[in-house]
Amino acid sequence: MDTVTEAILNRSSEPRLKAPAPSGSALELALACAARAPDHALLRPWRYLVVEGEGLEELGRLFESSAPEDATDAAREKLRRMPLRAPMIIAAIASPVPHPKVPALEQCYSTAAGAAYLVLALQAEGYGAMWRTGSVAESPVVARGLGLAEHETIVGFIYTGTVADDKPAVPRPGVSEFSSRWPA
User: Fold this and answer.
1) In terms of pTM, does the model score above 0.85?
2) Between the N and C ends of the chain, which has fewer C-beta atoms within 10 Å?
3) Is 23 annotated as a binding residue?
4) Is 85 annotated as a binding residue?
5) Dihedrals φ, ψ of 148, to 5°?
């Protein structure tokens, strides 16, 4: 089996992460892999923000500020502590470029593919990763706080670091459960 295929088949979301986070050449390599995503017309419709150290505390305050007015103290605290689940978070941001043949949605897909490559590269370098979205990824407050332009969107927050604990394998569906031939 090819090492790429093996890496894909062994990919796992890792919710329990600890220091160290990827740094130097490992981080640069993972980001370079993200830039190899399919990219019709070479628009490079993505960017990535790397958050670590005190930036995680600041990101937590930003997440907390996105809470609805009627949120409980416990809900606000949960939002504030979310970024502390990992020693590094990489925000994957779709930044579509106006183009007559490449719709913005396709460019968003390109960013998502890049984020998936990023996760695989982090795993290949010995790190764990967890792609998270949720209300904070869709929040205009968070988008503004991170400096996103009006046309940009958060595709996900890639939490990364060293895997803290092994977790049970997740059962995967058989190929016949989600694929078929057409015409039948």
Assistant:
1) yes
2) C
3) no
4) no
5) -70, 145
Which residues, including other chains, have CB under 8 Å from residue 131's CB and lie 6 or more apart? 13, 115, 116, 119, 156, 157, 158, 159
Q: Return d(Cα 60, Cα 62) in angstroms, integer.
A: 5
- How many domains are contained in the chain? 1
The predicted pLDDT at position 1 comes to: 76
Please report whether residue 174 resides in a domain: no
Does 135 show up as a binding residue in the annotation?
Answer: no
Low-confidence ranges of the chain (pLDDT < 70): none
For residue 76, tell me if it sits in a domain.
Answer: yes
Q: Does the annotation place 44 within a ligand binding site?
A: no
Domain assignment present for residue 157? The answer is yes
Which residues touch 46 (CB under 8 Å, ≥6 apart)? 34, 35, 37, 92, 93, 94, 95, 110, 111, 114, 155
- For residues 122 and 146, the answer to whether their CB atoms sit within 8 Å is no
pLDDT of residue 123: 96
Read off the amino acid at residue 143: A
Q: Is 13 annotated as a binding residue?
A: yes
**36 known ligand binder:** yes
Known binding residue 11? Answer is yes
Q: Give yes or no for a contact between 133 and 157, defined as CB atoms under 8 angstroms apart.
A: yes
- CATH number at 163 reads 3.40.109.10
